[in-house]
Automatic annotation (TrEMBL):
Its EC number is 1.3.5.1. The active site is at R353. GO terms for biological process: anaerobic respiration. NCBIfam families: PRK07573.1, sdhA_Bsu. It is an enzyme of class 1 (oxidoreductase). InterPro entries: FAD-dep_OxRdtase_2_FAD-bd, FAD/NAD-bd_sf, Fum_R/Succ_DH_flav-like_C_sf, Fum_Rdtase/Succ_DH_flav-like_C, SdhA/FrdA/AprA, Succ_DH/Fum_Rdt_flav_su, Succ_DH/fumarate_Rdtase_cat_sf. It comes from Acidipropionibacterium jensenii. This is succinate dehydrogenase. Its main location: membrane. One of its GO terms (molecular function) is succinate dehydrogenase (quinone) activity. Keywords: Cell membrane, Electron transport, FAD, Flavoprotein, Membrane, Oxidoreductase, Transport.
Length: 674
């Protein structure tokens, strides 16, 4: 990084952020070989005897794969678990939407896979911006996940002889992804749900559906409970415990249009951030390359087509712009550009998501996109009508395998595509385009999954720990179940071993009273503004700002502009939003308004994080930092660290704490998939 660039960053720091002390994870014993760190931590983590577990209360927010698995496991261990979700059933957690598969280093295909290779692929796929100790542990426990799920009856695909089948996902050259057609998330969640309901029936887990966490209670420096709003009656309640676990997913809906369920939000983790939990790498968001393109101005969400389709589907665009409006079946092979196969011959259509997404954008920017044209506004305000789509073609696979074989592997995905687009993908190539999907950033946690607030643990997509700057496909389900079934139950005991010594906290404790009053004040404020703008109109405007300036490509001028626009929009929200109805009833407008208030603050921090990181890595692509071939160019000498941000109050500059990333077990180098 040049001297002038460092000087520029110092000037920006004075304006937008402060620099604090470095931090480090102190829980992993890095003096040991990496393969021995997790067994060592399991042994050194203090235990809680069964009689004492019955006296301890654990609050778990979220019932997806991470939250559901954690609640079931801790309930079975004998703790009193209070489990919360905003859905009407744990089975409606967003984990159910995952389609393509779950990774595990079983090496069933005898193609060279191993724990180390899964570890290596994951760190490399994240562009060397993940903590290697956590990633190795994830790879090491991955095989246990499959055994657990098979025992629960998850109907993984099997080969003719009855053995579990595997397929490939992006960023790897082996087959390690276990799958259940295109319904893997649903089937895994049903397995976790059954384990969870068993503990509900046993009385160790108490389920609270339609309860949204709206505040974290921190008393005497420890996380000791949460405040919830009953989404049916509006009742605001305080819940106290010895420890709090957040497993509330990601924040992709800050972009408004994303592949996330419309209820997905950042409120639980953002409320914790405002109470002192550091937020790690918020700008690391993933744009998924295989989504159904935007088709109009009135969409509320986007639809993901599983990355597994890239196993057999070939991605291409016409070589000539004049062919873009032709029926693709009429374009001869010689006039098609299978650009991923051309640019990345070693990985072809199975390059990682960030690379596939950018290459699709480049083709469309060149005027080679296909499908209906949509209006776009460039950074300079110029309007354009562009086609935003590339082809995902199964003609070759159908010719090679037969339609029946393709239908057996991908039939439900093909059916979903046809219902949405009214096009038959067995006959006409699918049209796909990148969309916001997953967030690698989240609350900072140490090796034990404990945040910077003692007693607050964070699992799954809600934490930052395992994916660096880009998540490889089929690794989200792996992390969620690993955290919930195998990691958290082994590390939370070390914290709970001290719980008998914690100061007593009841509903009259000043911190509890203040948390409840803060929630009531916020709700009353939202209901009293009575402005002229709807919640959704402001959210759409925020999403447009985020997509244009903090989406697939970022630059300094755009990010500075975005920060100003978001600050103005946040002021507009707090002075001119219209929230109808009252608190004491089902009020979805109030729900969305509370979530949007947090998104507006998060959006600014995401842009500040992207502004401070003057390098390209994974899903974070700074236009000022790229190779001659247009690939991401990292600056390891300056930015090889986790950016952990501390909240300092409304209107105050956040504090940047750096956790240096040290790689002892893997060689750091520029990524190449060619």
């Amino acid at each position: 990084m040049s001297t002038s660039a460092k000087e520029t960053n110092a000037e920006l720091a004075g304006q937008y952020w402060q620099v604090g002390e470095d931090i480090q994870d102190k829980k992993a014993n890095v003096s040991l070989p990496i393969e021995k760190m997790w067994p060592d931590r399991q042994f050194t983590s203090r235990l809680v005897n069964p009689a004492n577990r019955r006296k301890m209360t654990v609050i778990i927010v979220g019932t997806g794969l991470a939250g559901g698995a954690a609640a079931a496991t801790l309930g079975e261990a004998g703790y009193r678990v209070e489990n919360f979700c905003y859905q009407d059933s744990p089975r409606r957690a967003h984990s159910i939407a995952a389609q393509g598969g779950i990774n595990a280093a079983k090496n069933y295909k005898y193609d060279g896979d191993s724990v180390y290779r899964l570890f290596y692929d994951t760190v490399k796929g994240g562009d060397y911006r993940a903590r290697e100790t956590n990633v190795y542990r994830l790879a090491a426990v991955s095989a246990n996940i499959i055994d657990q799920c098979v025992a629960q009856g998850v109907p993984f695909a099997r080969e003719y002889g009855g053995l579990l089948d595997n397929r490939s996902f992006g960023g790897v050259q082996v087959q390690r992804t276990f799958y259940a057609r295109g319904q893997t998330g649903q089937q895994l969640l049903i397995g976790a749900y059954q384990a969870l309901e068993r503990q509900v029936n046993a009385g160790t887990v108490h389920m609270h559906t339609r309860h949204e966490m709206v505040e974290l209670i921190v008393a005497d420096g420890r996380a000791r409970g949460i405040v919830t709003r009953d989404m049916i009656t509006g009742k605001i309640e305080e819940w106290l415990a010895d420890v709090v676990v957040l497993a509330t997913g990601g924040y992709g809906n800050v972009f408004f249009l994303s592949t996330n369920a419309m209820g997905c939000n950042v409120t639980a983790t953002w409320r914790a951030h405002r109470k002192g939990a550091f937020f790690g790498n918020p700008c690391f968001t993933q744009i998924h390359p295989t989504c159904i393109p935007v088709h109009g101005d009135n969409q509320s969400k986007l639809t993901l087509m599983s990355e597994s389709l890239r196993n057999d589907g070939r991605i291409w665009v016409p070589k000539k712009a004049e062919d873009c409006e032709k029926d693709p079946r009429q374009i001869p092979e010689a006039d098609r550009d299978y650009y991923l196969e051309r640019i990345y011959p070693s990985f072809g259509n199975l390059v990682p998501r960030d690379i596939a997404s950018r290459q699709a954008k480049y083709r469309c920017d060149e005027g080679l996109g296909v499908g209906p044209k949509v209006k776009e506004i460039d950074h300079d305000g110029t309007e354009h009508m562009r086609s935003r789509g590339v082809y995902l073609d199964f003609a070759e696979a159908i010719g090679r395998l037969g339609k029946d074989a393709v239908e057996k592997k991908y039939g439900n995905l093909f059916d979903m595509y046809q219902r949405i687009t009214d096009e038959n993908p067995y006959e006409v190539p699918m049209r796909i385009y990148p969309a916001v999907h997953y967030t690698m950033g989240g609350l900072w946690v140490d090796y034990d999954l404990e945040s910077s607030i003692p007693g607050l643990f964070v699992c799954g997509e809600a934490n930052f720990s395992d994916h660096g700057a880009n998540r490889l496909g089929a690794s989200a389900l792996m992390q969620g179940l690993a955290d919930g079934y195998f990691v958290l139950p082994n590390t939370i005991t070390d914290y709970l071993a001290d719980s008998p010594k914690f100061p007593k906290v009841d509903l009259k404790h000043p911190a509890v009273v203040a948390a409840r009053q803060g929630v009531e004040s916020r709700v009353n404020k939202l209901l009293s503004i009575n402005g002229t703008r709807t919640v959704d109109s402001i959210h759409k405007e925020l999403g447009h700002i985020m997509w244009e300036y903090c989406g697939m490509e970022r630059n300094e001028a755009g990010l500075v502009k975005a920060i100003g626009l978001i600050r103005n929009l946040r002021n507009e929200f707090w002075t001119n939003v219209k929230v109808t109805g009252v608190n004491e009833e089902l009020n979805q407008t109030l729900e969305r308004a509370g979530r949007l208030a947090d998104f507006l603050e998060l959006g600014e921090l995401m842009c500040i994080d992207a502004l401070h990181r003057r390098e390209s890595c994974g899903g974070h692509f700074r236009a000022e930092s790229q190779t001659e071939e247009g690939e991401a160019l990292r600056h390891d000498d300056t930015y090889q660290y986790v950016a952990a941000w501390e909240w300092t109050g409304e209107g105050h500059k956040p504090v940047l704490h750096k956790e240096p990333l040290i790689y002892n077990s893997i060689q750091v180098k520029q990524r190449s998939y060619k």
